[in-house]
Amino acid sequence: xxxxxxxxxxxxxxxxxxxxxxxxxxxxxxxxxxxxxxxxxxxxxxxxxxxxxxxxxxxxxxxxxxxxxxxxxxxxxxxxxxxxxxxxxxxxxxxxxxxxxxxxxxxxxxxxxxxxxxxxxxxxxxxxxxxxxxxxxxxxxxxxxxxxxxxxxxxxxxxxxxxxxxxxxxxxxxxxxxxxxxxxxxxxxxxxxxxxxxxxxxxxxxxxxxxxxxxxxxxxxxxxxxxxxxxxxxxxxxxxxxxxxxxxxxxxxxxxxxxxxxxxxxxxxxxxxxxxxxxxxxxxxxxxxxxxxxxxxxxxxxxxxxxxxxxxxxxxxxxxxxxxxxxxxxxxxxxxxxxxxxxxxxxxxxxxxxxxxxxxxxxxxxxxxxxxxxxxxxxxxxxxxxxxxxxxxxxxxxxxxxxxxxxxxxxxxxxxxxxxxxxxxxxxxxxxxxxxxxxxxxxxxxxxxxxxxxxxxxxxxxxxxxxxxxxxxxxxxxxxxxxxxxxxxxxxxxxxxxxxxxxxxxxxxxxxxxxxxxxxxxxxxxxxxxxxxxxxxxxxxxxxxxxxxxxxxxxxxxxxxxxxxxxxxxxxxxxxxxxxxxxxxxxxxxxxxxxxxxxxxxxxxxxxxxxxxxxxxxxxxxxxxxxxxxxxxxxxxxxxxxxxxxxxxxxxxxxxxxxxxxxxxxxxxxxxxxxxxxxxxxxxxxxx
Length: 688
Description:
This protein is mainly beta. It has no helices and 47 strands. The strands form 12 sheets. Strands 38-41-47-46-43-44 form a 6-stranded mixed beta sheet, with no helix packed on it. A hairpin with a 5-residue loop joins strand 33 and strand 34. The N terminus is likely disordered.
């Protein structure tokens, strides 16, 4: 069951005065109002349901969807990370670009009405809030900015220091309040501001200080650099007067993978926390990963829904992402109506691991152990296929100095995709990724995504009343990073992909019904709105580097679609490279005598077991070339090369020994060192 502590921590209260001359925002008193003429916030409604009640676009005519207009909002920008989702209010769309600029676009004509250019440098943003006659955004240096909704002129700016970076997370507005989460920083915090002035009303620390509830779950002073930042926007239930925040992974010590100096369960890292929306008072929490050493935080926006469970209507919140599990919690008190159990997990005393981890009784919606599929069998094979030579593990297997390969991985599961809850089907939908990770203290950040692995994904639909999978579809790309889902009252599901395609699917079965090429990777949520007597579908296609790096096509395309629109699809861009790349650019084989030195970096001065300890890591040769692999004579012991996944060779070499192989087919051939699988190289074989 979810842990309930009924002590309240009052974080300060403030009365919200009505300011003359400022238009009052429409007061939404429910968290589950479907999108209609407006799609007024990121997530669609206060419950983050990403659901539209509009019916003009339906399975019978969806194949006739074409572009109504397209606005290249930055005039042709083809770089940067675009993670912002548009909102639609009173026939106008508001979107932030890869630079963090805010653009207002007429929803009927697609013409730019106004734009606000950031004055403190570019930054990645995830969405504005609209209310009280303002459009709210953020900038570098921790500023929250209110723009006049009609003109885009700055109404006020407030710098909010002392809580970490207040830059990326989408702003949520409700009833005179702005809810702002931090991203990154030594301590995370949930914040509420006065929407009229920007005054700070209350805060709640992700890592509690001395005297605060949860501080005793941190060893010594480790709380001071414990992380636990709410990387994504909260949900709001006006009827209960609560906000729901997802706090991220624990950090500190050497990295997020090192728990050796922060013993304890580490609250409120990896937790869903319910707070009084007026005062910030703590109501309840549920921690989904205790003492996280895997960066397995569940940082997608929580989704609120009213569903029937065991014959009784329950107000629930759906929580979970990277772990590939949904925790269905009563949003009044945090109890688990469908059951959650604490199960023993493997231990590593040096990491001070927690003895148990929570699992929903029904299990997860994706696999939780990598697959040992023999080399030379079908390629790419199972999406959870293990890259060879790693120690193979499962979710919550602990690590120390040896990399442990496990899934879903810190970049897999659903990560920060935007869910959708359909009032029609009772299902919650998410895109997810198959991106295995190798965790160890030999990595300085949050784990290694092994070079050469295939990074794919899918879509899953889960019945909220039972927490059981209704359907699941694999996709050629990971859909774990901002790839939001929109469902509709006509049982349609829309999602954008990293290859630029926007898809329509049957929400009940997952069958594809339509696709449209937007010209750039989509890392945002589709929306629907009504303007000028017509109903539109819209999406922002801009692209992001996660997880495909610079191979994901970039753009600045804000598209709107209507039945029998005049615009056809964009030119298809080069697709993302789905295999995790090796370090370094290509080296012509003739320049290095068609030879790869094992266990040496490009400098070659000392033996290395690092990620780039093949010299070169990327060798380019013509078809028919014989390549020599040599264990450097100065190395201390046996090294080797294992080619995967085709299984062309798997050899061990003493210091000074060599092996040759002739590549007679064009393609890319990854290999790693059985003595250190982190060391990975690639032979690119090209047709002359």
